[in-house]
Amino acid sequence: MTEVFTIDMLLSVIWDREYQDQRLEADAITHVAWHLRGRRARG
Question: What gap in Å lies between CA 35 and CA 10, rounded to an integer?
């Protein structure tokens, strides 16, 4: 039972890390798009 619990925790940690990376990537894309839109509106 202990081994299964450890594997579950490991998978959960890996999944969390991938989710974090995807969210950061989406934030970066949104940030760049916001800057481009702002520059276009000003220029």
Answer: 38
**C-alpha angle with apex 18: 22 to 20, nearest 5 degrees?**
55
Q: Which two tokens stand for residue 30?
A: 């949104």
Distance between CA 13 and CA 9 in Å, rounded? Answer: 6
pLDDT tens, N- to C-terminus, the chain (43 residues): 567 678 888 888 888 888 889 998 999 999 999 988 887 776 5
Q: CA–CA distance from 40 to each of 3, 17, 28, 36, 37 (Å)?
A: 56, 35, 18, 6, 5
The pTM for the full model equals 0.48
